Amino acid sequence: MIKLIVGLGNPGAEYAATRHNAGFWFVDTLAREAGAVLRNESRFHGFAAKARLHGEDVFLLQPQTFMNRSGLSVVSLARFHKILPDEIVVVHDEMDLAPGVAKLKLGGGSGGHNGLKDISAHLTTPQYYRLRVGIGHPRDLIPGGGKADVVNFVLKPPRREEQEAIDVALERASAVMPMVIQGEIERAMMQLHRQP
């Protein structure tokens, strides 16, 4: 069963609407659903809440350490509450998926995502679940966009039509959360990975 859902993003109002904060958006949605309030927990280096979701107690976390140091926050809360890596879902933006697509998987590489890299290092394993929220790649979405534009791209808000597609993907991901939380990951994956 899943005991911790971590949304990745960068703290501060200037980053709130940027593509890199898709994980924060998802955790905000779950907190609203549960009527939970994320509070600043300095011992966990982030905003955290204990939420009752789909009949289970689950911790929600938004690290406030900036993306490339997210592991400190995750490992602090996981150790304190004795949560194992395979009981954690990390929600993050994914450039290899188009806006509107969300995929769930266990383990794997970081795909160049600094937040995942740091979490894997702190947990000393990549064997935690990832909910990958597609934001698209600048090479596909911006004429002449390439690798050099990646940092600029993730730290900018999506265009309106991209935001709408991302919101739909977040809704679809939220709809499978009852299965995810109950540990029915395969069923959740099948439903989420079916194209609408």
Automatic annotation (TrEMBL):
PROSITE patterns: PEPT_TRNA_HYDROL_1, PEPT_TRNA_HYDROL_2. It catalyses: an N-acyl-L-alpha-aminoacyl-tRNA + H2O = an N-acyl-L-amino acid + a tRNA + H(+). Its main location: cytoplasm. The keyword Ligase does not apply. One of its GO terms (molecular function) is tRNA binding. GO terms for biological process: protein quality control for misfolded or incompletely synthesized proteins; rescue of stalled ribosome. Monomer. Hydrolyzes ribosome-free peptidyl-tRNAs (with 1 or more amino acids incorporated), which drop off the ribosome during protein synthesis, or as a result of ribosome stalling. PANTHER family: PEPTIDYL-TRNA HYDROLASE. This is Peptidyl-tRNA hydrolase. It comes from Pararobbsia silviterrae. The lineage of its organism: Bacteria, Pseudomonadati, Pseudomonadota, Betaproteobacteria, Burkholderiales. The gene is pth.
